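Mods, move this if it's the wrong board.
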Amino acid sequence: MKDRNYTHSIQIDPDRCIGCSHCMRVCSTRAIRIVDGYAQIQPARCVDCGECFRVCPQRAIYAKDDGLATLPPENYKIALVPSVFIGQFPSEYSATQVLNAVKQVGFDEVFEVEQAVDFMKVAYQSVAKENPSCPLISSYCPAVVRLIQVQYPSLTGQIMQLKAPHDIAALYLRRSKEKEGLNPEKLFIYYITPCAAKIVAARAPVGEAKSPIDATVNMTEIYNKASKILYETKKPGLHKTFANMSPDSVNWSLSGTEKKYFPGRNLAIDGMDNVIEFLEKLESGHISDIDFLEMRACDQGCAGGILCPGNRFLAVERLEYRQKRLQKLKDADGGRVRNPLMEYGETLHTLSGVDPVYPRDGLLLDEDMEKALIKLQRIERLMTYLPGFDCGACGAPSCRNLAEDIVKDTASISHCVFVQRVMEKNYKLSPDQAFVVIEKIWGKGRLDKYVER
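Not the wrong board. Structure tokens:
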């Protein structure tokens, strides 16, 4: 069996959590339960999409990154900045100014991730020829990759075996800096991340033993520090600089861009609910004749990431404006694009692949197939006793999830408040015992409220 010690960025602060169950209800993979009055995450099911983060009224859910405090002062530090970060700032600030501000936060050098997109375009052509499986599913969004591992195991073989642009950029930096004479052990690469899933991808990547990225920093933290620097300089204005990449590369992280560079019939789907709906149809065989699927867990792609401080629609507009401006600069320069990363194309090609993606075996009911089938039959039998209301009062998001928990010995059928009433009627459970069960789920004293008449 593979390692079941799953790494996660999404965390719950029990000191802030009030067990409201908002997170449990929106979790796409049914990974959250309410126990003793607090939300708890089941590691095997969580994909770090951050939907729970969005709805928590107490801000008890957070994304744990490495933070700037881990910056080693003695090392050469490079910040990998995605273009979507630049889109968080008003257009009065140029990309050059924003990246310079990031450098002043505490880095020796700043590198824009999308400089690796020119390589990705070429790689997509090769992948299309070498992989007859259709449709191929983009590996760009780590939350989607993990979603497929958890809920659609039969589709794992269709996930593209190719690193994401930020990994390609990190590999280029390691090779180029080593060529310049920098000690590889002194190079430290930080990724400024728009989401929790990419934090996990850097710590525990799927399909590879180790990520070329050393650490991650929450995009909001860097945004706040860079904004302060930009405000204090008070020198907004456009700079006529030439980007080291194709103009359309800046929009790679936005929904609908990636699919343009894969041959054939391709679709772009964003938003976790939309992705799940489409994967359901794909797994059941209701959709065919598609060559490539670009799937993003967040609405508008990475512009909608949970760690992006700005409005996603304004960020998209700014990036589209930047693309047009870069196109004008390119045309004025005779249509040339000077991308130094492409000089390492052959080297990067040999390093760009990843191993096949497999389902998460931690979700198996039992390692023994015969026992697993028996447990599955027990789940179906339990469903005949449960009401099917999916009310969540049992601390699980649905009746089926409660049945699964019962089979796994983490819950009992008396957790269902409706079954409790039947058990009390038949003298199989006393009111005091039923109250103890409720407190076990929602916490002691949760219902001790005085109501005036």
